Amino acid sequence: MGSNISVQLENVSLFRGNAVILNQVSLLFRASRTTVIVGPSGSGKSTLLKIAAGIILPDEGKAMVNGVDFREMNEAQNLEFRKSNGFIFQDAALIANKSIYQNLSLPLNVHFRRMKEEEIKRRISQLLARIGFVDNLDSRPDDLSAGECKMISFVRALVTDPSIIFMDNPTLSVDSRAADSMVEIITELKRMGKTILLVTHEAPLIAKLADDLVVMDEGRIIESGEFASVVKTTNKEVRTILAKVLNEAATYDGDILDLLEPGGIEKIFE
Questions:
Q1: Residue 127 is part of which domain span?
Q2: Chain-wide mean pLDDT for the chain?
């Protein structure tokens, strides 16, 4: 599918019984850019990410990759998209009855059937070394902490060298040293021109990575656009949401917009 992968949502809605999870969402996630999605807990961020990745199909509207609706993809197109993307789940979503090594090698075995075992082991060990994971690869997910499972989910998503990566709170529950390594890798992916869709409430991560910013609340898009534009908004609702979300990650005085200026947050954390 190539490296220039864009995802578009057109009037997407999702319902669970009488509850509206997503309400008429229209967005373009531009290729080779990092889009950060923020909003209060329960605002629909994780669901939006899964719809953009084709994991969940919307009840109304269209979710498209390079203009092709997920519903209209043939088997070959769907397989090609799966091969080209990686997804880091908030809860790790590892396969409980498989070893850590089996979890990590599965995407390569499915999408790169001719890849030799030596190359599979090399890719896995290289990524694990970068994030500092040293546990036995024969262990099962139940043997690991939540943070360690998240590290494995991170490596599993990247082991195929995907063109587009979906990240749902990738550094959540991870110790600071591993989180720093993960941020370093994400920064490299951004520099390489990968398309990244990132859900996070980590203020330094937002300031460091966001090309585009999407602000959500109650299943709606309140505002979206280039990072520099969104953080300078005069929309009180957006300002309130940004202040509320980022207050979980940083203590600050003064204007939230000053904090969010590129480099502003990073100076606070130096």
A1: 7-268
A2: 89
* 1 within some domain: no
Residue 78 is assigned to a structural domain of this protein: yes
- Distance CA(185)–CA(171), nearest Å, equals 12
Read off φ and ψ for residue 100, nearest 5 degrees. -60, -45
Query: In terms of Cα–Cα distance, which of 141, 131, 144 is closest to 179?
Result: 131
Q: What is the pLDDT of residue 263?
A: 46
Number of domains in the chain: 1
Q: What is the CATH number of the domain that holds 56?
A: 3.40.50.300
- Tell me the per-residue pLDDT of 36-66, one tens digit each, with 9 for 90 and over: 999 999 999 999 999 999 999 999 999 999 9
Write out residues in the chain with pLDDT < 70, as ranges: 1-3, 246-270
Counting other chains too, the contacts that 50-53 makes at CB distance below 8 Å and 24 or more residues apart are 50/166, 51/9, 51/12, 51/14, 51/22, 52/7, 52/9, 52/166, 52/197, 53/85, 53/87, 53/166, 53/197
* 251 close to 239: Cβ distance less than 8 angstroms: no
In-domain check, residue 61: yes
The answer as to whether 2 is a domain residue is no
Read off the pTM: 0.89
